[in-house]
Amino acid sequence: ESIASMSDGDDSGGEQGEMSSVGDTQVPGSGLTIEVLKKELQSIEGFEEISGDSRYQKFVDRLTRLGEASDFGKLVTAAIDEGGTSWKIIVPTQPTAVIRAVSSAVSQIEIAVQQKLRGDGAAV
Q: Which of 29, 39, 78, 82 makes a 20 to 30 Å CA pair with 116?
């Protein structure tokens, strides 16, 4: 896996963690849940699935520190190229939201997540 892009913001969380199905997990301080993200993103062509996966917390923590230390800003999303057509988009929820999508949908999904976090309410 290689990091392909980071939005505002070295391993993929090698620790063992628990995966959870879509539920009421919130982005800290935002009121945004994985369930809300799923409802927002499922209409985007190329969106495959979203789940909570605490194994990515170490990855999120490192990217958050990198953003703070280098004045990149707050971590909103990070995209990971899995090779081929499959990508993961990481969103710092508790546990971490992991969105799987085809490469052609990554930008649109990242924009939709950013708009939802800002409360733009713009349709996707």
A: 82
pLDDT along the chain (124 residues), means of 10: 41 40 51 87 96 92 90 87 90 90 96 84 46
Q: How far apart are CA 59 and CA 20, in angstroms?
A: 18
How would you list the strands of the sheet with 19-20, edge to edge?
2-7, 77-81, 86-91, 97-102, 47-53, 19-20
Q: 80, 20 in Cβ contact below 8 A?
A: no
Q: What tokens appear for 30 in the block?
A: 């935002």
The predicted model scores a pTM of: 0.73
Q: How far apart are CA 17 and CA 39, in angstroms?
A: 25
- Hunting for tokens 């508790």 — which residue is that? 94
For residue 6, the one-letter residue type is M
Q: How many angstroms separate the CA atoms of 15 and 17, rounded?
A: 6
CA distances from 86 to 46, 58, 81, 83, 89 (A): 10, 22, 7, 6, 10
